[in-house]
Write a structure and sequence with these properties.
26% of the residues lie in helices and 16% in strands. The chain is of the alpha+beta class and 153 residues long. It has one domain (9-151): HIT-like (HIT family, subunit A). It has a five-stranded antiparallel β-sheet, with helices on one face. A hairpin with a 3-residue loop joins strand 1 and strand 2. Bound molecules: adenosine monophosphate and zinc ion. Zinc ion binds at residues 14, 17, 20, 22-23, 62, 113. Zinc ion (ZN) is lined by residues 14, 17, 20, 22-23, 62, 113.
Length: 153
């Protein structure tokens, strides 16, 4: 399947392996608080946690963002994400967690090695509920759907 180029998503920091901070963490050149490692994945605590237990899950292979992550890692990504998510829920007593990837500079990506944030959440914790927008008409949704389906080959 043709891949969408990811080069326009913003790669100002760590755009290649040599100066990628997360590749350096994987290699052990920069310290981190590691919580998981397998052949293909690595997870460590975020240095500026949004909540206790905030973890970053990354592919060991340098991938700039989600569009560069090899498809064959998908099943393992889900397995590891679930495994860490369950452990974090139990360890922190959280009520839930966000599993988030900021894809591209415009989406808030600051480190250009693809990473999933696992952010433990408590009921009423007051963290920003970014995903509740404004209700729109069905006709507007239909127009958006058409645009996406044209590209969804
Ligand atoms: P994003 O904005 O999605 O690119 O998130 C980057 C995340 O990486 C932020 O939450 C940072 O706190 C985190 N981060 C940056 N440098 C380090 C580091 N050396 N160790 C752990 N987390 C880091
Ligand atoms: Zn990297």
């Amino acid at each position: 399947m043709a891949k969408t180029p990811s080069s326009n998503l913003g790669t100002s920091i760590g755009g290649n392996m040599e100066d990628c901070i997360f590749c350096k963490i994987i290699k052990g050149d920069i310290p981190c608080t590691k919580i998981y490692e397998s052949e293909n994945f690595f997870a460590f605590l975020d240095i500026s946690p949004v909540s206790e237990g905030h973890t970053l899950l990354i592919p060991k292979q340098h991938c700039t963002n989600l569009l560069d992550v090899p498809e064959h890692l998908g099943t393992e990504l889900l397995e590891v994400g679930q495994k860490i998510g369950r452990a974090i829920l139990q360890a922190t007593g959280a009520d839930g967690f966000n599993f988030i990837l900021n894809n591209g500079k415009a989406a808030g990506q600051a480190v250009f090695h693809a990473h999933f944030h696992i952010v433990p959440r408590k009921m009423g914790d007051g963290l920003v509920d970014w995903h509740h927008g404004t209700k729109v008409e069905d006709s507007e949704l239909a127009g958006v759907r058409e645009k996406i389906l044209e590209k969804l080959l």
